[in-house]
Amino acid sequence: MRIIKTKDYQDMSRKAANIISAQVIAKPDCVLGLATGSTPIGTYKVLVERYQKGDLDFSGVKTVNLDEYRGLTHDNDQSYYYFMMHNLFGQVNIPLENTHVPDGTEPDAKKACDDYEAVVENMGGIDLQLLGLGHNGHIGFNEPADEFPKATHCVDLTESTIKANARFFEKIEDVPTQAYTMGIGTIMKAKKILLVASGKDKAEIVKKAFCGPILPQVPASILQLHPDVTIVVDEEAGALL
Ligand code: F6R
């Protein structure tokens, strides 16, 4: 596991974008695993800038996202599909048919998850998986549990996540209560993993996940067993390392 400590959010974003750029340049038809959330927004911004300057070409790149809310359509501005269109897919020359996000509109959860697992497999696996880190150590929507979930599955969102998300919706009934997420097994099969974390509120969990014991109660701790992981933290998130 390599840990790269950076100055601040911008520096973290640039260093993470360097690793993704290197992957795209070395293998123009690579499969990128992507994340949503606030942390990678700066990374996507740098990638878009490099594309605009003509330094990066996404025409052969394929992508698979980690997760999606169950029940949200693509045009819902809270869906992860919408997030990806806004922050990356709509801003670079990636063919949309090469981009994949779990289908939140598929009501049959088993079908949605089995289909998505097959999509990842049929692409020949993920070359580089980008991850953020939840305050409780979650990666994707894999929350602390008694065991590490393996394949793509449907999760019930915790009461606190539903409450936290309520501010983005008109009524509490509109807040999704479930999500489809790649499993820990799906994530661990990626050839390379890049995790980004920023801010002092992530310092405790960064230390716990990467310097503590490997436990399903801290899902990201499993990354210690992956042969090729790079963690890019800013000074605040890396303060306790
Ligand atoms: C997003 C995802 C989540 C986030 C995590 C951190 O696709 O899978 O695991 O990476 O919740 O979110 P931020 O970056 O907003 O702190």
Quick summary of this structure?
The protein has helices at 9-26, 41-52, 80-87, 109-122, 159-165, 184-188, 203-211; strands at residues 2-6, 31-34, 62-65, 67-69, 99-100, 128-131, 153-156, 178-181, 192-197, 229-234. By secondary structure, it is an alpha/beta fold.
Structural notes for this entry:
- The chain has seven helices and ten strands.
- The two termini are 13 Å apart.
- The chain has helices at residues 9-26, 41-52, 80-87, 109-122, 159-165, 184-188, 203-211; strands at residues 2-6, 31-34, 62-65, 67-69, 99-100, 128-131, 153-156, 178-181, 192-197, 229-234.
- Helices cover 30% and strands 17% of the residues.
- The protein is an alpha/beta fold.
- The protein binds fructose -6-phosphate.
Q: Could you list the spans in which at least 5 consecutive residues all have pLDDT below 50?
A: none
How many beta strands in the DSSP annotation?
Answer: 10
Using only CA atoms, what is the Rg? 17 Å
Helical content, roughly?
A: 25-40%
**Oligomerization category of the chains in this entry:** single chain
Structural class: alpha/beta
Q: Which sequence of strands runs across the widest sheet?
A: 1-10-9-6-2-3-5
Main sheet properties = 7 strands, parallel
The number of helical runs is 7
Elements, N to C (H/E): EHEHEEHEHEEHEHEHE
Shape: globular
Question: Kindly state the mean pLDDT as a whole number?
Answer: 96
Alpha carbon gap, first and last residue: 13 Å
- Note the beta-strand portion: 15-25%
